[in-house]
C-alpha cells in the first residue's frame, strides 16, 4: 500500500535530482524565503470503490516554483518546460509506477509576483487488506430427523 508520504518523497526526489533550488513540503511561507524555491503538496481527492478488494484513489500533486526577484517571466517558461520534460507520463513510487491522468502547467500571478504552477492528476488502484475473521471449527453436529418411518 502506498502512502501519500511515499508519493510526496518520489516527487521531491525527482525535483531535487533536476533542480538546485530548495524544496518545501510544509511550513510554507514565501516571505521567509528570499531565493527561488519549490513548494510541493498532495491534495487527496475522492476514493472510489472499484471491487470488493480494491479502491480507485485519486489525488492532485501541486508543484509551485517561486522565483527570486531577479527572475524574468520568460525564465519561468524555461522552468515550466523543464517540469513538463521531467514529469512526462509516470513516476516510480516504491515498487510501482503511477501514471499521470492529466497535467496542467501555467504561469500565475499573485500580489507578490509571477510563479509557475504545475498540477498533476493521478488515479490508481489500491488493494484493500481486510483482517480475516477467525472462527472455531465445529467439532460435532447432532441432528435428529422426525418423520415417517416405513
Automatic annotation (TrEMBL):
<dbReference type="Pfam" id="PF20765">
    <property type="entry name" value="Phage_tail_terminator_8"/>
</dbReference>
<dbReference type="InterPro" id="IPR049254">
    <property type="entry name" value="Phage_tail_terminator"/>
</dbReference>
<protein>
    <recommendedName>
        <fullName>Phage protein</fullName>
    </recommendedName>
</protein>
